[in-house]
Design a protein that fits this description.
The structure is a single chain. 26% of the residues lie in helices and 23% in strands. The strands form 7 sheets. It has a 7-stranded mixed β-sheet, with helices on one face. It folds into 4 domains: 15-103 and 218-273 and 306-327, Rossmann fold (3-Layer(aba) Sandwich), CATH 3.40.50; 110-217, Glutamyl-tRNA Synthetase, domain 3 (Alpha-Beta Complex); 349-464, Ribosomal Protein L25, Chain P (Beta Barrel); 475-568, Ribosomal Protein L25, Chain P, CATH 2.40.240.10. The two termini are 42 Å apart. The protein is built from 13 helices and 27 strands. It is of the alpha/beta class. The chain has helices spanning 15-21, 47-62, 81-94, 109-121, 132-139, 156-167, 217-228, 243-253, 275-283, 298-304, 308-318, 329-343, 558-568; strands at residues 34-37, 66-71, 102-104, 125-128, 177-180, 195-199, 213-215, 232-236, 259-263, 267-268, 326-327, 345-347, 349-350, 353-358, 367-372, 382-387, 390-394, 414-417, 422-430, 437-445, 462-463, 466-467, 472-479, 506-514, 526-529, 533-537, 548-553.
């Protein structure tokens, strides 16, 4: 696949790498660094997951270690094999390789059940009959302690019997749970007898109907890490308050104890990163699917034209932090612009066409003009552009009554055609019904081929064009931010995140005119439409009968300008 890259870190010195660098295999059960990337298969990966994967796979690669890919499939009601497949496809596209180290938490269900039995035998777990609301009520608040469940004092024998019956399906969903017995007065709510097993009579994609009880994430997480010999369990910051529970379970079970390290999750402006909210956008058809180019998902970014290299660059630029913050979307756009500026072919594309007839150009004449494929990369060479009597230009490149300093085409004014000739507008044709301009008539100076006049006269404006006779027709999708506000997930004003959806996040343009070389455009290739932005073929909906191009990003780089301003102050 074009633009694929390997995710190897630049070995930036961050606090996680400092911790990992102190690892002494001689004092551990494992001779090499083992990390893991553990997505839950309840949605598609987004760019926040790319950052996590970059950290985990990068650290393993740097230290000659292993990074496991483990699916945390402990909640079958929300999980699907589609997500398992999509996650692997996205990771491969990004350049990650887990070899034979593919695991599922469901691989360990029997072992986890044994762990639960061990806790019950130690008097560290009990079956509780309180329902979900009651458990929440008994848990207390951040400022007030919880109170003990009336079922907390059940004997070991009674708990073993009830838990066995839970496994055999003798109770209804929600009727009973298994809870760890820790401390209902703890200042950390996560330590107030958390639920570690619940009844869920739901078919599981991998274990079928073998189980009707499933471990919670808090219970499965650490034990799965231990079973796999993970040395460093690297999580996002929301799991920091869960670390005491992670440690308590491993210590009480007396099994191998990995080290959990937390880092700040990625928060990106003008979008949402919650899989629950992304799923809501998909299911309620606010977007076309998980791979909608407006989505922050890896598949959405890929469809929009982002590359593995640009995403890696973005991850490295934002680095690894200990505290949450919001990263400007414009930085991500800057990363793809910076790459495509040197790698993408320049082409001509007219998005809102206006026909121009060059009256004094021979009617049947066609000539070919040399065009540079990429001025930043001479090795990309040149191409031939057909030129004829009738061409298309952008509507916005003509004004009948222009203001001062409008240097593009207007009546009696002369402009330069990119790689072509000087032309002057001599007539404006309008639609009799609407009054809209339908066609322009111009003359050209045959002595100005290539854009220079022998008499040295100056022309300030240069516009792009395509030959009407040779143009191919295409549909163009222009994308803007999915949300109008920087932090749509913030509910400080009482609004819901969907209240901030941008009604103009996607604009569809039909009957656009493109230079003929784009008839051979392929999925995975990126192009700069001169003066318009960077575009790519839509990998889902485009066809030979209806070519569709997505705009990856505009040419304007607000982040680079902002950065330059900040650094000059």
């Amino acid at each position: 696949m074009a633009n694929q890259t390997t995710f190897e870190s630049n070995r930036a010195n961050d606090f996680i790498r400092e911790i990992v660098g102190k690892y002494n295999p001689e004092k551990s059960e494992h001779s090499k660094i083992i990390t893991r990337f553990p997505p839950e298969p309840n949605g598609y990966l987004h760019i926040g997951h790319a950052k996590s994967a970059w950290i985990n796979f990068g650290i393993a690669n740097e230290n000659g270690g292993i990074c496991n890919l483990r699916f945390d499939d402990t909640n079958p009601g929300k999980e699907d094999s589609e997500y398992v497949e999509s996650i692997q496809n996205d990771l491969r596209w990004l350049g990650f390789n887990w070899g034979n180290n593919l695991y599922f938490s469901s691989d360990y269900f029997e072992k986890m059940y044994e762990f639960a039995i061990r806790l019950i035998n130690k008097g560290k777990a009990y079956v509780c009959d309180l329902n979900q609301d009651q458990i929440r009520e008994y848990r207390g608040t951040l400022t007030s302690p919880g109170k003990e469940s009336p079922f907390r004092k059940r004997t070991v024998e009674e708990n073993l019997d009830l838990f066995t019956k839970m496994r055999h399906g003798e109770f209804a969903e929600g009727e009973r749970v298994l809870r760890a017995k820790i401390d209902m007065t703890s200042g950390n709510i996560n330590m107030r007898d958390p639920v570690i097993y619940r009844i869920m009579k739901i078919h599981h994609e991998r274990t079928d109907d073998k189980w009707c009880i499933y471990p919670t994430y808090d219970f499965a997480h650490g034990q799965s890490d231990s079973i796999e010999g993970v040395t460093h369990s690297i999580c996002t910051l929301e799991f920091e308050d869960h670390r005491p529970l992670y440690d308590w379970l491993l210590e009480e079970l007396e099994i191998y104890h990995p080290q959990q390290i937390e880092f700040a999750r990625l928060n990106l402006s003008h979008t949402v990163m919650s899989k629950r909210k992304l799923l809501e956008l998909v299911e309620q058809k606010y977007v076309s699917g998980w791979n909608d180019p407006r989505m922050p998902t890896i598949s959405g970014l890929r469809r929009r034209g982002y590359t593995p290299k640009s995403i890696k660059d973005f991850c490295e630029r934002i680095g690894v932090a200990k505290r949450n913050n919001t990263v400007e979307y414009s930085l991500l756009e800057h990363c793809i612009r910076e790459e495509l500026n040197t790698t993408s072919q320049r082409v001509m594309g007219i998005l809102r066409p206006l026909k121009v007839v060059i009256d004094n150009y021979p009617e049947n004449q066609i000539e070919h003009l040399d065009a540079v494929n990429n001025p930043e990369n001479p090795d990309m060479g040149t191409r031939q552009l057909p030129f004829s009597r009738e061409i298309y230009i952008e509507k916005e490149d003509f004004m009948e009554n222009p203001p001062k300093k409008f240097y593009r085409l207007s009546p009696g004014n002369e402009v330069r055609l990119r790689y072509g000739y000087f032309i002057k507008c001599v007539k404006v044709v309008k639609d009799l019904k609407t009054g809209d301009i339908s066609e322009l008539h111009c003359t050209y100076d045959p002595k100005t081929r290539g854009g220079q006049a022998p008499d040295k006269r100056k022309v300030k404006g240069t516009i792009h064009w395509v030959s009407a006779q040779h143009a191919i027709e295409a549909e163009i999708h222009l994308y803007e931010h999915l949300f109008t506000t920087e932090k749509p997930e913030s509910d400080e004003d009482g609004s819901e995140f969907k209240d901030h959806l941008n009604p103009n996040s996607m604009i569809t343009l039909k009957s656009c005119k493109l230079e003929p070389s784009l008839a051979n455009a392929k999925v995975g290739e990126n192009y700069q439409f001169e003066r318009q932005g960077y575009f790519c073929i839509d990998q889902t909906d485009s066809s030979n009968e209806n070519m569709i191009f997505n705009r990856t990003v505009s040419l304007r780089d607000s982040w680079a300008k902002m950065y330059k301003t900040q650094t000059s102050d």
